[in-house]
Design brief:
two-stranded antiparallel ribbon; elongated; 21% strand; Ribosomal Protein L24e, Chain: T; binds zinc ion
Length: 77
């Protein structure tokens, strides 16, 4: 019986963590806000939009933590 309680607790915590990870606004979540976090598609790091390296590709903006990640993205696309 005790194990069941632990299992329910673990499932609840897991769902909460998963919800937090997916609940964040994406790169287009808060347009115009410089403090919005954007995800680097290369290394999956979240960085503030204002300090990100921006690459324009097929009409979209992609944001990177560093010039190195931007270069890796350019090479792959
Ligand atoms: Zn990066």
């Amino acid at each position: 019986m005790r194990y069941l309680i632990y299992a329910v607790l673990a499932a609840t915590v897991w769902l909460l963590l998963r919800g937090m990870a997916r609940g964040r606004p994406g790169p287009s979540g808060q347009p115009g806000s410089d403090v919005a976090l954007v995800e680097d598609p290369v290394c999956k790091t979240h960085i503030p939009k204002s300090s990100a390296v921006v690459v324009h590709r097929s009409g979209k903006n992609f944001y990177f933590c560093s010039e190195r990640c931007a270069a890796a993205f350019r090479d792959a696309h």
